[in-house]
Design a protein that fits this description.
Layout (H helix, E strand, L loop, with lengths): L6 H5 L6 H4 L2 H12 L4 E2 L21 E3 H13 L1 H10 L23 E2 L31 H10 L4 H12 L15 E3 L2 H16 L11 E5 L28 H8 L3 E6 L33 H8 L5 E6 L5 H7 L2 E4 L14 E6 L2 H11 L25 E4 L1 H4 L4 H18 L2 E4 L5 H22 L13 H10 L4 H24 L3 E6 L13 H4 L1 E3 H7 L4 H6 L3 E9 L8 E8 L5 H18 L13 H10 L4
Parallel strand pairs: 5-6, 10-11, 10-12
Antiparallel strand pairs: 1-3, 2-13, 4-6, 7-9, 8-9, 8-14, 12-15, 14-15
Helix pairs in contact: 4-16, 5-16, 7-8, 7-22, 10-11, 12-21, 14-21, 15-16, 15-17
Organism: Hyaloscypha hepaticicola
GO molecular function: catalytic activity
Protein name: Amidase signature enzyme
Length: 636
């Protein structure tokens, strides 16, 4: 408000950060950290970008839904001049006037690999119950963790088979009878026989006292963008048996979880092709936000976020090409980790990675550590050191680009400010002001980079390239048709901007070792469902899409790891149930362990400092109680 100064402004004033960096203690920590700097392959040259004032104009993309969307999508898919108009109207030509880009070469691949450093190497942290203690039982809104399932399996209180048999009726789609489980909307396919076989084998291992790992017998699921042996990967599309072959082997992260004994319940719902952020899917149905059924889950990993939020699984595998792990994690009140580019596997994209969503930070870390084991058959992934193998310590530093941060809606901004104050006042973090150039243009560059890549691959994987949009839902016909209009020169400019941003981020991470760049995960408090009709045919709302991706895109374009943590709740604008809010931290390439450490402190804030603590949604499912009842009934 004019004439007033908030507490946040007084604590973290805009402009000089001398109030922080003049500290002799911090200066000493920074110098020590620089002297033992991590070595990397592919690290950008640390060059500060020229100062460019922050600017952001209101987006003016047309919004389509229902019957109008169907007709409009058909017209857009057929008329090239309309596609070109919409491309320009979206502002995708906005890089052409950026004169500083002329000094930068393009960078096509954001992969940066931290090299193994013998001097800082420590024993890899074991993924066992001693390393990941359970949260106190009296915590409000407490989620069941893998460690708790593991302990109950060891004691005989539960068996993996009882848990699997309890979950199957809840998640199964039954097209023959029309009877579907209460949570089946989040699933696309479940192979019951395979699930029960895996559960029986896990139960037998526990009876013999020889479980494979802490994840043995733990239920999980896989977003339908990653391969699981025996399943088709549809990417949220209608099934096409000619194009979608049954996978002969699982993707690398899924393999590592399977080897650890995790029980794969099936493939889960997502936004078709991962092309937007609602998880509105007319093909398979749209899972509603567990906290408020008048809101979207967010996407494109909306199925995974729903499953974790509703308590069905401690962790699930998602993917993130433009916030697709972090946005639904924020909307559904769970934890999500977008790893460094190519850290887990090669997704054949310059922006997309796979990564876990989880109900607790401990489960997020366990799931990540196992999935991130270097793959010897992948020449890039194999170069990464095993997660948790470095003993380096860094100063505790949070960076705030205030003009960008302040773009968030007031309730979101306030909740995230409270967490930053907590980190500063209670946990000893230093807070520094930073500047990042071209965040508006950078978001455009990331948007049309991913849409162009999607369009190229979608056209390449159909039998008739002339009718390549035919089987897509109406909203995606518009998005991909527009993305396909990107001229080569503009795509080239986007990769020059990628290089400029990566070099500037390298400059910041070298200036402030251990820096975590903090923003809200998304500036808006959830995404309300406009009408029931929107769920039938989909919706195309580029303005809201751009708005809710305002902070998440940079980690994708530049390849950095980023984490989203729930930090509070706000009142809804419709429906019943408060809306979760997430905070995001983006770290230096390869700094997943650092981010997970900060995530533990965000979890501590939510559980201990946030008024009322964590809240579970109304449809949260107590799987243990159901399984215990099954055990008591003699069905083990």
């Amino acid at each position: 408000m004019d004439g007033e100064t908030s507490q946040f402004d007084r604590d973290f004033p805009v402009g000089t950060s001398d109030h922080v960096t003049s500290s002799s203690e911090l200066t000493q920590k920074m110098e020590q950290a620089r002297s033992r700097a991590q070595r990397f392959y592919g690290y950008p040259r640390p060059i500060e970008a020229p100062y460019i004032p922050f600017t952001k104009s209101e987006d003016a993309n047309p919004v389509f839904s229902g019957f109008i969307l169907m007709v409009g999508a058909w017209l857009v898919s057929k008329l090239g001049f309309v596609q070109k108009f919409l491309w320009k109207n979206a502002g995708f030509d906005g890089l052409r006037k950026l004169k500083p880009l002329r000094k930068y070469t393009e960078r096509w691949d954001p992969t940066v690999i931290p090299l193994v450093d013998p001097e800082s190497r420590s024993e890899e942290r074991k993924a066992d119950s001693e390393s990941f203690p359970m949260l106190p039982e009296n915590l409000l809104g407490r989620y069941l963790s893998a460690a708790e399932y593991h302990a109950m399996y060891l004691s005989g209180q539960l068996t993996p088979l009882a848990v699997a048999e309890s979950l199957i009726p809840l998640i199964l789609r039954d097209p023959k009878s029309g009877r579907n489980g209460s949570h089946s909307i989040a699933f696309i396919d479940t192979h019951v026989d395979a699930v029960l076989t895996a559960a029986k084998e896990s139960t037998l291992r526990y009876q013999k006292g020889s479980p494979l790992s802490i994840l043995d017998g733990i239920p999980t699921a896989i977003k339908d963008e990653s391969d699981v042996k025996g399943y088709r990967t549809t990417q949220g599309r209608k099934v096409n048996q000619d194009l979608m072959k049954i996978a002969e082997k699982s993707s690398w992260p899924v393999q590592k979880w399977e080897e650890a004994g995790a029980i794969i319940l099936g493939k889960v719902n997502m936004h078709e092709l991962g092309a937007d952020t609602t998880n509105n899917n007319p093909n398979w149905g749209t899972p509603r936000n567990p906290h408020n059924d008048q809101y979207y889950t967010g996407g494109s990993s909306g199925g995974p976020a729903y499953i974790v939020s509703a308590g069905l699984c401690p962790f699930v595998l998602g993917s993130d090409g433009g916030g697709s792990i972090r946005l639904p994690s924020s909307y559904c009140g769970v934890y999500g980790l977008k790893p460094s580019h190519n850290r887990l596997e090669d997704t054949e994209s310059t922006v997309t990675v796979t990564g876990p969503l989880a109900g607790t930070i401990a489960d997020l870390e366990i799931a990540y550590r196992l999935a991130a084991a270097p793959n010897p058959d992948d020449p890039t992934c194999a170069l990464f050191a095993p997660p948790g193998s470095s003993s380096r310590s860094y100063p505790k530093v949070l960076g705030i680009y205030k003009e960008w941060f302040d773009r968030a809606d007031l309730p979101v901004k306030k909740l995230c400010e409270n967490v930053i104050s907590y980190c500063k006042d209670k946990l000893g973090y230093e807070v520094v002001d930073i500047n990042i150039p071209c965040v508006t243009e950078g978001q455009l560059a990331e948007s049309f980079t991913i849409l162009t890549e999607m369009a190229v691959r979608a056209r390449a994987h159909v039998k008739n390239p002339r009718d390549w949009l035919k089987d897509l839902n109406p909203a995606n016909k518009v998005l991909l048709a527009v993305g396909a209009q990107t001229p080569g020169t503009d795509y080239f400019l986007a990769q020059q901007l990628r290089n400029m941003l990566m070099q500037h981020l390298a400059f910041l991470y070298q200036k402030y070792p251990g820096l975590i760049i903090v923003t809200p995960t998304t500036p808006n408090a959830g995404w309300p469902i406009g009408s029931e009709a929107d769920l039938k045919h989909g919706i195309s709302d580029g303005n809201m899409t751009i708005r809710n991706m305002e902070y998440v895109w940079m980690a994708n374009l530049c390849g950095n790891p980023a984490i989203s943590c729930p930090v509070g709740y706000v009142d809804p604008v419709k429906g019943k149930g408060k809306i979760p809010i997430g905070i995001m931290g983006m770290g230096e390439w390869g700094s997943e362990d650092l981010l997970l450490g900060w995530g533990k402190e965000c979890e501590r804030y939510l559980n201990e400092a946030y008024p009322g603590g964590r809240q579970r949604p109304a449809n949260w499912q107590d799987v243990v109680a159901i399984a215990e009842a099954k055990m008591e009934g003699g069905n083990k």
